[in-house]
Write the structure tokens for this entry.
Amino acid sequence: MLHVVGDDCFTPLFRETFSSAFHLEVRDNYAVADEAEALRRWAAGEPYEREEQPDSWRAWDELMIETAGRGVVLERLRVVTVPHSEYTRWLIENTADNIATGEQVRWLPRHLTAPDTVPRDDYWLFDRNKVAFTTFAEDGAFMGLSITTDPRIVGWCVEARDTLWSKGIDHARYVESEYVRA
């Protein structure tokens, strides 16, 4: 397994992708440094304008737009605990930005699926033949990616994706659901 770190570790993976990129998120809280100010302001009820976003957010949006523009299907599934954490509530309110860049986003309340079907780690699945596990420090800070093409590991991730994605609730329906009101 190859471990990569750095601000630009995702770009080559997306540029090498031809058909699909699926992201599984299984944590209820993250401590991503460039999200801290936006999250703080949201929690305090203060505005946070798009022009104030860090360069990394704009670079990510541009990469997603470029990738979707090449016809790559972008999917993101967030497995979440209900009631939602503050971080998850913030994500729900900001997911329109992901959708605007070409991502399909679904939500899956954790209690609606068997625990053994949910991997413990977040990952990106590229073209159903390469997996990049996102690694985090104990405090939730992003540490890098661990990348593999091992057929057994990839197969397990494909199976998890297929099982969980079919249970996920599309973002537009989810925001109107009982789970968001919980």
